[in-house]
Please model this.
Amino acid sequence: MPRLSADRRTEVRFTLNGRPVAGLAEPRLLLSDFLRHVVGATGTHVGCEHGVCGACTVRIDGGLARSCLTLAVQVEGCTVETVEGLAPGPARLSVLQEAFRRHHALQCGFCTAGILMSLDTLLRDEPAADKARIEEVLGGHLCRCTGYGPIVSAALDAAERLSEDPGAGDAPEERDGDV
Amino acid sequence: MSAAEPAPSQTSAKPGHLGRSLPRFEDAALLTGRGRFLDDLPVGPATLQAAILRSPHAHARIVKLDVSAARALPGVAAVLTSAEVQALSAPLVVGVKAPMTCWPIATDRVRYVGEPVAVVVAADRYLAEDALEAIAIDYAPLPAVVDPERALAAEAPVLHEGLGGNLASDRSFRYGDPEAAFETAAHRIGITVRYPRNAVTPIETYGMVCEWDPGEDGYEVTANFQGPFSIHAVIARSLKVPGNRLRLKTPRDSGGSFGVKQGMFPVIVLMALAARLAGRPVKWIEDRLEHLTASVSATNRVVTLAAAVEADGKITALDWDQLEDVGAHLRAPEPATLYRMHGNLTGAYDIRNLAVRNRVVVTNKTPTGLNRGFGGPQVYFALERLVQKIAVTLGLDPVAVIRRNLIPAGAFPYRTASGGLYDSGDYQKALETALRDGGHAALVEKRDRVRAAGGLYGIGFATVVEPSVSNMGYVSTVMTAAERAKAGPKNGAQATATVALDPVGGVSVHVASVPQGQGHRTVLAQTVADSLGLEPAQIRVVAELDTARDAWSIASGNYASRFAAAVAGTAHLAAEQLKAKLARLAAAQLNVPAEALVFEGGRVCAADTPDNAIPFARLAATAHWAPGTIPEAAGQALRETVYWTPPQLTAPTPDDQVNSSLCHGFILDICGVAVERASGRVVIDRYVTMHDCGRVLHPGMVEGQIVGGFANAVGAALYEEYAYGPDGAFLAGSFADYLVPTVAEVPRPEILHVETPSPFTPLGAKGVGEGNCMSTPVAIANAVADALGVEDVILPLTPARVRALLDEPEPPAPAGTAPAAPPKRAGGRALAGTGSAGFAAPPQRIWDTLLDPATLEAIVPGCHKVEKLSETRFLAEVTLGVGPVKGRYSVEVALSDLVEPASVTLTASASGALGTGAGQGHVRLAATPEGGTRLDYDYEADVGGKVAAVGGRLLDGAARLVIGQFFAALGRQAGGGTKGGGATDGGATDGAGAAGPWTGLLGRLLRLLGIGS
Model:
């Protein structure tokens, strides 16, 4: 890690969703702002900037983190994964994403990015996660639209499909008329 | 959980896409990070970022405002203050003719915590926020008033001198003969309720990009505004431009609104002016603290409601006295919260006599505006609490009282006493179905069982008429008939929709509905596909709005649950209009009468000879490629725009009758709660919600609206409150203070439906988005009241509040638990503590060190400089951090009661961009046998502003930490250091603070986290 100076920008290099990226960041720049406004990955959303709402949740080196409580310079050399990296292809959704769609587990979709990151990580680590585990993990997120029930249903549905066929990984995308 | 079965189409015998739960077309983008929310949109390289300096005081005069240092900072392009705002714009129009001026920024004084005082525009947000700290501002605090009843008192501080007091409006209404009804009734039963402040705060905050074009003297604004677009007129008037020089655009996606994003319009004015001042586009994204503190709130209201009741529970009259608290300014469209329910003040009940007094009061709190349920939670909390009280008072079953008073099924359309026209309903069927399918009998058995075992269990009901599609004229009911006559009539609710054909026969739909997650694009695709015989995926829908290009009107936007009833219906009409033209074209080509044609499967064919057909795309392209072939009488089938307003939405009558809404859904909720005796926690055991929202267009989305509104309402009932201290300090500035429910707090309600289609809307649908925000808070409150056998329940029903309602001593704490802290004295965020420290140096040495500015500068944590104003007065500049809030303060300290070298009293006041504080401390020095010093101290302080709003829970710990650092440094400075274990002792909260470690490892750790300097 290079020596940082408060008034100088530092180049931060890391891997984002499998591709190498780099950008300049002041030491105080939040990772959420860095991802969105420097790197241009706007799928990660900012809802509170104090770590409670969970909308900005990303994966850093495989573990979950609030990008609003992480400084950009902290991800130097790390592997960062965001919602943009969850789908297996441009016209395909992951099993979890597809389940969200089927169960109407999103309305405005603003908190969804963080929730997908948390539940995707849970199902990666515990493909047979039960309702209690799903609710425990989902408890770290605020959603104002759905009342949470449909999100739990979607996650349970995805868990069932993944534990039946762990190799599935993704589901075919239906045509959505919104290209 | 059940959702409605698809309803048969009113307009077509064959089953269509409408009524089915199609996957949403919105979802693929939102699930993959390809949303287009405001802050995701590209902006030009010239775009600057803004930050707002906000008042830490609830009420104060601005004595000095000097922005020169901020303007001079690198990266700062402009600083907007009230001087520029007043020079470049006009005050915001106030809905009530009242002698008060409402600017979007504080002028000579601030009237609520969070009120904008200055706007800094800089190269980025970080620099803009840096510059806020360089603004020099002095306030002279004034007494504040936060309680609406106190605001009416003669001695209350006055917010707007022009009003002469704090009462902004006072109107009385009388329908039928309420006096006679009360005179002859067997009982008069009344209740007083206080509905608290809250808001369904969306997860995406306000955001906007504003630009000024000097060549055209026009403004262009892109904002996640939600409507109503009557506000467009308010913004344009304030910016002093005609409506066609304010281009207002919305992004495709908006991260929830629930009414709240109506409230951003004063900031739109500010940022438009900031862009003008800077000569460049300005972007502003609100942060969460700003949003919770000062965006907008629902109104809090004090309601005294009395009913004239016969012995059998029949209500013959209601007498409403509503005191509405709109905060510091009466902002458009207020006092709409108070009048939206005017036509349905008698709820679901057949009550012909009605007296109403509506008063609007201003207080030192955030101005109010739209919020999910808008006016319903306040009205139904009073009405349904009263219905329960009638049952309790008369010894009747609450269900019997409801049943006795429901409007008869055959009475629709039903005109209420105050002029509402209920479109359709069968309340008896809904009630009986809910009782039967919702398992009411089993619930009663369970309650008896739990109670027999000594538990606390209650059942609550709420019966609600859910209005939707607002009459744009209802707010004018606040004016007298004479004032209305002078102002001209206001009424209706124009909805717009455009259906267009492109040169290859593609169909696109445009509406001015500005969705925030309600799936409008999917439902409109279903609607139009059904009309034209296409697949929904073939229809492209645009639901964002551009006022420079699109068909819109003042009622445009997404509020008052108007989408399904008004907007989808209007799209249906536009599609049918286009279809009629296409049919005439096809008739000529297929040589059959237009009436004999059917549109299905992407073709248009004769009904009896399906082979005689033409592909839809080819027919649809005709007007583009061969307009000359179309007979003039048939008309060009290219693009149909329909404006639709329901004739039932008439202006208020001279005798103040008003049909405030077009549609009236029905809700009957049954709630079973268990209350934990030891903790006071309310557990929702069972929740049944019966809805009649007319024809269901998309069962999945209707269910989504119901469970979403229910979750919001659980928050309002049990957790959420925009809390204020008596001094007006705002106390809920973070999601750790304003408790939005998580999955753990929200049970799944059981949803039931009956359908009575609305005869007033094109598709038979009614609104459904807001009902549970009206019904659920009071259903839960009624259940808790039933469980505890109490009358006066106040939301939110937090464990502490519920525990206080239990008329029994708290059980002792479990063994090994520390005793509870004594309650702090009343006030905003109070801070108090005592402690001691030991030093190797003698008292005189410590005394001299303490009183020397040069040494103080070196040892006060975060101190930049100390200036000695006199022998006993010091001025210090310090940077302190509490939790997430770190900022620079000016601290003035006065010394008194000096007894050298034994004791001194310090009186201090601090102010900074992040907040204020004032307090007093006592320090006593005593020589120890070893020649050192023992120092004892105590202190008491109040803090306000940002620190109070978000750092409240951390204050005591932070104070102990800073004091510990101070004494450690004092010991070093005086020589010999602190004596082991002698740093600081506990504050008032835990009474047992750690000693030495504060200055050691833990101290360093906390410093790293920004607590302390």
